[in-house]
Specification:
Blueprint lengths: L18 E3 L1 H4 L3 E2 L2 E6 L2 E4 L11 H5 L7 H7 L3 H8 L3 E5 L12 H16 L7 H25 L3 H26 L7 H16 L3 H13 L21 H8 L10 H16 L15 H7 L6 H4 L2 H19 L4 H26 L15 H8 L2 E2 L3 H7 L5 H6 L8 H15 L5 E2 L1 H25 L1
Parallel strand pairs: 1-5, 6-7
Antiparallel strand pairs: 2-3, 3-4, 4-5
Helix pairs in contact: 5-19, 6-7, 7-8, 7-15, 10-20, 11-15, 11-20
């Protein structure tokens, strides 16, 4: 039990003597209705405030009962400002005899990683290059404009449609990587500017919800490849992942699908994902927006008007009505209304494959398991791997080939990952932490191999255990 008086509950009140807590007591407060966490040895009660957390209640709740210092530093570009909001939540400190890290984490490794981060800050590696992101956005817009011009000059024949679909799949994939930068607050110094441009890129270039992306993606970064905490490994019974989940499913005789064939139907599920993921994407012809209504009725929070995210939808709806009226008067289908469907079909297929392969190559082949309460460096390294650097790999993956550096420093601008990489490798070598890097082709093959291995574990447990 802690000793001493308690601090006042609101900022501005005179501070009483802080109460001291042990890790044993703090770790008990990791429930849905009772959440404490530690940042720089200070203990905060976030139970009531979690629902007002700008990053979502789940991402901060995943750190309940733990030392959240490194996660706090990783996600906030202005920690000093955020500490003002934490002040009213302060209830005490770690007892003087308690280590700064919980659960027997290596204190020297943790300290060395924080020193590495400070070194990166001193090297200005968290400062974005405006020209890089301006040119990046420019090449996306150029592809969109090119698509419009091709429709205007060459019509909507099949050859033009295929070329258009490839151009649009490329621009949409690159817009996906760009929104990722703004979503992680890695471009502007002010969070508000990052959020504004993030909503523009997501809502107007991608046609998706920025809030929904943030809610899921920050959880992934906080607890990558951790069941029940990382939504990216919650595959809704389509796949079994890692080494423990397949055995667990097998022993319980759970068979939602024939998981021993998941490495084969993985390719088929991406056709479904083509419809699910890319149906939220914009295309140059506004008539295509007629396909988005059912998707958005589920994806956008009810408190957010559709027009807030997707003003072009209303123009598309107006033109759709106009085209249908012309069709009725002419008594024949309009070529204009059929062209976007051809572009949509091919474009969705191409971009969804691009998206799935790139986003899964760094994580699915890695360790996927339950919570093990590792330190920040070790937990991120166990769940991520890098892809070899090249100009093409950097562009094709949106620098997600530097997934290790991105996960360790999510607010670092991507064009600086290669600069911090040697420091990360050196630290990993010092403590024997595996730093995995592989060619792009092998990374794709490893996805299939990992699914095959997990499927075999499930079948063995299902039949024999």
């Amino acid at each position: 039990m802690g000793k001493g008086g308690e601090k006042g509950g609101e900022s501005g009140e005179p501070e009483a003597q802080l109460r001291f807590y042990t890790w044993e007591e703090i770790q008990k407060h990791n429930l849905r209705t009772d959440k404490w966490l530690v940042i720089e040895r200070k203990v905060y009660n976030i139970t009531k405030w979690a629902n007002r957390h700008p990053g979502g209640h789940r991402v901060i709740s995943h750190c309940a009962g733990e030392d959240a210092t490194d996660a706090f530093q990783a996600f906030h570009i202005n920690p000093t400002l955020v500490r003002k909001f934490l002040k009213p939540l302060l209830i005490g400190e770690l007892a003087p005899g308690e280590p700064s890290q919980d659960r027997d984490k290596n204190p020297q490794l943790v300290e060395d990683f924080r020193t590495l981060r400070k070194t990166a800050e001193d090297m200005n590696l968290f400062r974005a290059n405006p020209l890089f992101f301006t040119l990046y956005l420019g090449h996306i817009i150029a592809m969109e404009v090119l698509a419009w011009l091709m429709v205007s000059y060459f019509g909507t024949g099949w050859i033009t449609t295929l070329i258009l679909a490839f151009i649009l799949a490329t621009s949409q994939a690159q817009a996906g990587w760009l929104q990722h930068d703004f979503g992680h607050l890695s471009v502007f110094k002010k969070s508000s500017w990052n959020h504004i441009v993030h909503k523009f890129v997501m809502g107007h270039l991608k046609g998706a919800s920025a809030n929904w992306w943030n809610h899921r993606h920050f959880q992934h970064h906080a607890k990558p490849n951790i069941f029940k905490k990382d939504p990216d490994v919650n595959m809704l019974h389509i796949f079994v992942l890692g080494d423990t989940q397949p055995v667990e499913y097998g022993k319980k005789k759970l068979k939602y699908l024939p998981y021993n064939h998941q490495h084969e139907y993985f390719f088929l599920t991406k056709i479904f994902l083509s419809l699910l993921i890319a149906c939220s994407h914009t295309l140059p012809n506004p008539n295509t927006f007629m396909h988005f209504v059912p998707f958005w009725s589920r994806m956008i929070p009810s408190r957010m008007p559709l027009a807030t995210f997707f003003p072009p939808y209303w123009e598309g709806l107006r033109l759709m009505v106009k085209v249908l009226r012309e069709q009725r008067e002419a008594g024949s289908p309009s070529k204009l209304s059929l062209a976007p469907r051809k572009i949509t079909l091919v474009g969705r297929f191409l971009e969804s494959h691009w998206f799935v392969w790139v986003t899964q190559m760094n994580h699915i082949p890695m360790e996927i398991d339950s919570e093990k309460h590792r330190d920040w460096l070790s937990s991120q390294m166990a769940a991520t791997c890098n892809i070899e650097q090249s100009f093409f790999n950097d562009w094709f993956t949106g620098h997600l080939n530097f997934q290790i550096e991105h996960h360790l420093f999510p607010t670092m601008p991507r064009h600086n990952f290669w600069k911090v990489k040697p420091l990360v490798k050196s630290l990993c070598a010092k403590y024997g932490v595996q730093y995995e890097e592989k060619p792009l082709g092998k990374a794709f093959v490893d996805i299939v191999g990992s699914l095959k291995k997990s499927g075999a574990l499930w079948l063995d447990a299902y039949l024999h255990k």
